[in-house]
Amino acid sequence: MTQYDVIIVGGGPAGYTAALYCARAALSTLVLEAMAPGGQMGTTDQIDNYPGFADGVNGFELAMNMQKQAERFGAESTFAQVSSMELTEPEKKIHTEDGNTFTSRAVILALGASPRELGLPEERALRGRGVSYCATCDGMFYKGKTVVVVGGGDTAAADTVFLSKICQKIYLVHRRDTLRASKAYLKPLEACENVEFVWDTVVEEILADSSVTGVRVKNKKTGESREISCDGVFIAVGNVPNTALIAESIKLTSNGYVDAGETTETNLPGVFAAGDVRQKVLRQVVTAVSDGAVASHMAEEYLNRIE
């Protein structure tokens, strides 16, 4: 059984940045990823807000390059679904569904988070074809067009304000008669002249041919249904952190994210959290990359202390 200095669970931008920095610090490093590199980033057709790419960059292409770069310095990648983790002892053990166990002295959790879905049958099939969960990632695809934003919290309000500067018309659909967003978000939202509020309403169906053409919505109070024509639907009803495997050992916040500050340190010695799984104010590729660099530095410091 090979023991690594650091095991990184998750191969998104946080995970592979951590791997790059760990490998360059001469730490034996393994990245465990369930599917393909990139996480949510890898499913985004074009990313326009990551520095250094004047014309944008394909998310999957960026993910593959991050993996290759980390591996160029000696990081290893294994694609397997993690089934359980033993993180409380000095020797950390990561078990995978194919029956393998990997051990290390430090672990960086880069598990990511998944957008909360509306749960509509056609929703997943239309992702990337009019359904989006990230306005800052995909908003420019809808320049001069009409979109629907679904949600009522800070993210929905911020997304609507952002899209109001790009799109011709935005319908903000919320299941209540007031938004839950904080006042800091409400004031700029109220100034948007191209936003129409659709209160007490839920989305029943996303309409499409080859891509989104509209939504069918229902007013919860009156029972009335109607169709809204649009080119895209931005779903902003929150995220679900991928913390099920660590919920019993790692301290989480009330909304399920790992309780780790800017140092990325968790409540367990030698265990760090980076990227979207960590409680933070902004979840973007650039902040995930930053977390990965910090986590690798803290892991290196931890390993130096215990030697």
Q: Could you describe the 3D structure shown?
A:
The chain has 307 residues and is of the alpha/beta class. The protein folds into two domains: 3-114 and 239-306, FAD/NAD(P)-binding domain; 117-235, FAD/NAD(P)-binding domain, CATH 3.50.50.60. Helices cover 23% and strands 28% of the residues. The chain contains six helices and 17 strands. It has helices at 13-24, 59-72, 135-138, 154-164, 183-190, 285-306, and strands at 3-9, 29-33, 76-79, 82-86, 92-96, 101-109, 113-115, 131-132, 146-150, 169-173, 195-198, 201-208, 212-219, 225-229, 232-235, 239-241, 271-273. Strands 1, 2, 3, 4, 5, 6 and 17 form a seven-stranded mixed sheet that branches. Strands 8-15-9-10-11 form a five-stranded parallel sheet, covered by helices on one side. β5 (92-96) and β6 (101-109) form a beta hairpin. The longest helix is centred in the last third of the chain and has 22 residues, at 285-306. It is elongated, with a radius of gyration of 21 Å. The protein starts with a strand and ends with a helix. The model has no long low-confidence stretch (mean pLDDT 93).
